[in-house]
Amino acid sequence: MLDTNPLQEASSPHAGALATSRAFRSLGFPDLIDIHLPLRKRQRGFTEAQMIESVLLLQTIGGECPDDIGLLADDGCLERGLGYRAPKATALRYFLEQFHDQGLEDQRPSRESQLSFIVPSSSAVAGLQEVQAGGVRNIAALHEQHGRRLSIATVDQDATLIESHKQAAYAHYQGGRGYQPMIALWAEADLIVADEFRDGNVPAKQEPLNCARMAFAALPDTVSERYFRGDSACYETDLLRWLSDEERHGEPGGRIGFAISAMMSKQLATALGAVSDPQWVTFDEEPDGTKRQCAEVDYVPSQRYEHKHSRPLRYVGLRILKPQGSLFADGSDRHHHAVVTNLDWIAAGLLRWHREKAGTVEHVHEELKNGLAAGHMPSQRFAVNAAWLKLSILSYNIASAIRGLCLSATERTARFKRYRLLMVHVAGRMNRNNCMMRLRLCACESAIARINTVWERFKLATQATYSQPWPRAG
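Above: the chain's sequence. Below: its structure in token form.
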């Protein structure tokens, strides 16, 4: 029999979302938001931090658009835990509209000319980037407190398509319409350090240096070794020159080791074809017998990328060779590629390391668009959508911090669908006892232990920081 009377207690089907709130506050995001994102014109109403916290909770529990904020409505447990009632959809949309700057959008060329143009970030979106960078540094500091000093940073940079049928969206190279943001990931920490929101008609190869600069500026001082990996969209003169120059202006970090897929030109294809068969060394073989082979390539591009005092860049060839009797779709039995680098690593190790990018930043694209809410742009206005993407990124980074600091080794690779089952969709209720608010969870011991670890690792200077042992029967 079903009792249709609603439960009147302060209960919630996703009380585990309060772990996200605790991490958000413990990592200092409210202070960072107060410093870098002063949007309110009046002192009453929700603070910027409360609005952003509400969006992060919304995305964490599975909401995809501002109207889904109703998922948090009438949730007495979350309301007591947060200290405020979640905003309504109209208030949330008004908050997002404050990121809009029409003057910047008006700088675009007309649609008739179809010229690609990177719309500059509004001051509010730039403030969110500072919040994002500050959060990355605070997460790194917390890792260090718990015995894991993050001293190596590999930045993986890649663009992705976000399909959108909004009238304001521009056509992209796959034939549809949407947006094509650039994202930079700190691979070792699984943290997104920078992004640049772009229209769909902006090619990935257009000015990738902007995102790379923001990414390295966001890294903490604990990083002593820095690397960069990119696909052929990063094979661009200004970026290669900047990465090669250890005395780059305004960036005191020093050397950056990099490996970038080279754009195939006629000259490079000729140089790869000139490598004799004995020079190709097999370093991997796929189950169907396809061989991955490497070789040094004697190639000097007509366009010089390196600083005048630096060594010439190195080109490492990759040949993918089909077994006898098998062909690629184009009728050939071999494909040639190349990687340009300033590293002197063994060729096979370099190519394996460069290929790892497919399992880092490309995985993040999938999580942002399908696990979180970045696949659904909420507005016709460019900067509102840029802010929505950044809020998805903040949600990802907080979840990544919880995974890295609180979950077991087998659970840290959990994608967002499984992460919600482990950490978010946990029923619980909030009650008051002896003038103290207590969160009691309706879950198995392992689930409670995970959330208890969040309370222990992410400290807050309040009386509500304690976790109480679960009394055992007998």
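The radius of gyration is 25 Å.
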